[in-house]
Fold these 4 entries.
Entry 1:
Amino acid sequence: MFDAGMSMARINLSHGTLKSNLKLINRFKMAKRLRPHKTCGLMLEARGREIRLSQVNDPSGELKIRSGTVVNLNCLNYLGVSDAKTFYCNCDIVQRYLKPNDVVYIDDGKVVGIVLEISNEGCMMEIKVGGNVRTNCQIRFIGGKHDKLNLINPKDMTDMAAISKEMQIDYLVLPIATCGEDIKQLREKLGEGGKSIKLLAKIDSISGVENYESILNEADGTIFQRNEL
């Protein structure tokens, strides 16, 4: 890929583990050393406000969910194995902001649910559009629910600290950026040691589109992801 003209290597922290990502980065570093005449940067994409499904209980890594099925979305036990009756996700506070009739998009809308009722552990939802969902796929809610979630996942900071010891991080992508204040907060979290990292905002929500100018004023660049808008 270096020899074919790759100019940026992107690692999404939502996929893989710190150990596997460090292994990829070390391979990237070795390839770069062998090509001192080539220029190629390292881009990390943070987990940010993303909500992800846990591992599913099918060996294929996918579950077939039928329309009309009632599914329990459990937000308190990400280590649980998801099946056709219960989905486990990695956000333990989103249920505070849900209400009946909210729309839930799973795996970029391959499966769509409607919230029926809220509980302390999550919600019950009816699947309106059935389909296949896979391990670690995204779960999205309408109505600016993600705006209220923590800007950065604690694992993001741990992973970035470990990776920065191995190699300089050139760019950091913040998913579900909703306003310019998000970028300011991220710069503060990175501190003095991360001041050389350029920040890119991923515009993948309606809030991000509405506040695009304020985001652009604070970020070093933006990325649109149309399939999630």
Entry 2:
Amino acid sequence: MLWERAFHCSDLGRDLVPVIQAFHALDAFRTGIPGPPDPTAPEIAQDYETAAPAPLLLRSWLADHSASLAAGAELEPFAGVPSDLHVTVHGGSSHVARPAAEKELWLCLVDGDAELYSDVSDAPTKLASGGCVVVPPGTPLSLQLGRGAVALSVGFSRLVDGNA
């Protein structure tokens, strides 16, 4: 290893640039020979207690929960796993709404079709099976799922049903 730097990243495009610039300014970058450790680098506390959940085979999980999803259920595949990241599966002919949030949300239509309404555009965005969209921070949304549709949302706040 030539060099190591720990940093908080909330915007990869913004926060990674100074780290790369700092690396490029080092002799280790030019020579390929590791230099002395950085005495100002903060020590990172390793979390030895939190266990990652077992891998999820999404198609199998969806098949196992198909009846609930067809009825319009909203399910969390990783329920009970402590995390700031929320993964939710939305099913059936249902309506999903999310108020404006501080963080972005990734939304993928796994099966079926849906219409996404937000204040970014006056017209709905039509999503087809496999279509994905990133909802920017501060953007409320309304998602109308078609019959038999299944959507997956991943974000730092849960989507809620209704107009909350």
Entry 3:
Amino acid sequence: MSVAIILLSHEPNDCIYQYNIAYSLRKAGWQCDLYSACNNHLEEPDSHTYTFDGVSLPLKERAKQIKTLLKDKHYSIAICDTPLGVSFARQYADKVIYYITEWYPSKKNLRGLSCIGRLVKFQALVLASLWAGIRADAFFFGESYKARPFRMLFPWKRYFYIPYYPRLDIFPPVEQDKKDSVFTFLYAGPLTAEKGWERVKRLVKAIADKYPRKQWKLLVLSDSTDECTMPDNLTVSFEPYQPYRTFCNMLHEVDLCLDLRDDDYENTHCLPIKLFHYIAAPANVLYTDLKAIHKDAPTLAKAVALVQPDDAERQLEFVSHIADSPSESLRAFRQAFEQEYNWDCKEEPFLSFIKKIQQP
């Protein structure tokens, strides 16, 4: 049994592919090689992961270099993250699984184009997704809404839901509560209005103004920085995106994780990966009320604070409450992680599905 994970759009350190899928396959004694075009800096180097730094390359050039790495190799199964990967994976594997975690097309695919350019690219990406569905032998789905088109168009094809849950051993139980006198917020993501950065800035400034005698800190993980004028009792620290395990360890020191993105059509139908890591830490969460959370994580939707992105009064009220009793909900979050929202619950069904796919 041999499996190739072919990633044109995801880094090798991706929690789903490297820390869940590859980890479980290798633990079960199967050969699993991972190929990524997005990063050549591995957090945990191994002899079964092949990468190059192709972030700045066009997708077709990434595919060309991946094919070079795959030359003269053949696998029982290939797991691909893009329609382009699915289109050529058949040359190197008996069976191909398309793992759908992204919309094709999505807003980021169409930015910066003219109206005609957007229309042409939209149609091209729709056709590419359709072709990938035809070529694939089976599907992995990360969430319900992104599964719908493929389940409707290809009802006879096998599929398996692989949610974005971390492993239990990545987040061992915390022995004691955080005792730091500084209340720490975390925002991780692009510094754009659409992703809620301006709302986050307004919220943390408002809470610092409301409690001038308390010390506050906003930790920002992003690929850019921003000028922030804040009260003296609030510090803002910008850091680049962290390797996976480093990021998970950082969460133990955070009091409240913020994400106030727009609730537009695409955002509200996308299930956030970060959310499951936040509750695993556990850390308190304030998130935009997204339909995908209610659909794919109903237990969690009842436990975390979901708000309208522009309801500043409700957001400030919640933060004030958490500042007074920060650990009130943490036990419930940890319990939800341990009982339902962890990869260990999915590992055996995942391995059984892989065995079935290998069969003629």
Entry 4:
Amino acid sequence: MIYHHPRNWQPTVDEGVALSRIDAAIADIKKASIDDGKGPNDRPKAVGRIVQPTRFNVALNCLKRARINISRDGDKELAQGLQLRAYEQIDGAIKAVRNTLRS
């Protein structure tokens, strides 16, 4: 949702931070799922309904759901370490998106 923008879009610093944090969280989650014996393309069912209209609110809701989804797994010790890193990345992305919404 953050990538989806109008033609004259000039990214803010917080948007850039959110995008890089999201990419890092995705990489950590993929590594953890492989370590947990799952395929890298396994995806949980989408949960919840998006009600806010702006792309940043949608992105924020998706990040919150991602944080909930990764809390459901992580049985193996190595995967738990990657899970903690993914939490940090997602939390950083949430903070950056919230900063964008405030500005």
